[in-house]
Amino acid sequence: MADLANQKRLAADILKIGVTRVWMDPERLEDIATAITREDLRKLIEDGVIKRKPVVGISRGRARERAAKRAKGHSKGHGSREGAAGARAPKKEQWMRRIRAQRRVLRAMRDEKAIDAHTYRILYRKAKGGEFRNVAHLKSYIAYQKK
After folding, report:
1. How far, in Å, CA of 13 to CA of 72, rounded?
2. Nearest alpha carbon to residue 105 among 130, 145, 142
3. b/e map 93-112, b = 16+ CB within 10 Å
4. Strand pairing partners for 51?
5. Could you please report the per-residue DSSP string of 55-79?
6. Which end of the chain is more exposed for a tag (fewer CB within 10 A), N or C?
7. 12 near 22, Cβ under 8 Å?
8. What's the burial of 50, exposed, middle or buried (CB within 10 Å: 0-12/13-18/19+)?
9. pTM for the full predicted model
């Protein structure tokens, strides 16, 4: 069998693809071997003796399956974790989630007249200072102060 590396390389260049994506008809290898110029190869490409293979993609099916399981809380055990707890849920994001929730509650209470504007300002500053662990802690603090 003739060495068709040169023809393959030229065909790849003409088709603007990689060498591995060039397909040559096994029935017409003699014709391909005699084709030595780019013009000869262009004629063979036109005749369908040389074609480009389709791009081989990597399926995302398994990744989607795993993502769906993780959304339900599965496959998240100690063995599957990479990165520290602070990298998986950054401290800043935890703080943002917590403070926004507390401020939402404080605003709602002020609007409903459950607390007056002065108390709101005091509690707002305490929340900003990180005095409350979560919304439940904030509410229990308010309840305790009212007694």
Report:
1. 49
2. 142
3. eeeeebeeebeebbeebbee
4. 23
5. PPP---HHHHHHHHHHHTT-S-SGG
6. C
7. yes
8. buried
9. 0.56
DSSP state of 81: -
82-134: pLDDT as tens digits: 999 999 999 999 999 999 999 999 999 999 999 999 999 999 999 999 999 99
d(CA 43, CA 32): 10
- Which long-range contacts (C-beta less than 8 Å, at least 24 apart) are formed by 21-26? 21/52, 21/53, 21/55, 22/50, 22/51, 22/52, 22/53, 23/50, 23/51, 23/52, 23/53, 24/49, 24/50, 25/49, 25/50
Sign of dihedral through CA atoms 5, 7, 10, 12? negative
The secondary structure element, H or E, covering residue 23 is strand 22-24
Q: Which amino acid is at 20?
A: T
Q: Would you state the pLDDT for residue 1?
A: 57
Tokens of 4: 């068709």
Which tokens in the block code for residue 58?
């990597």
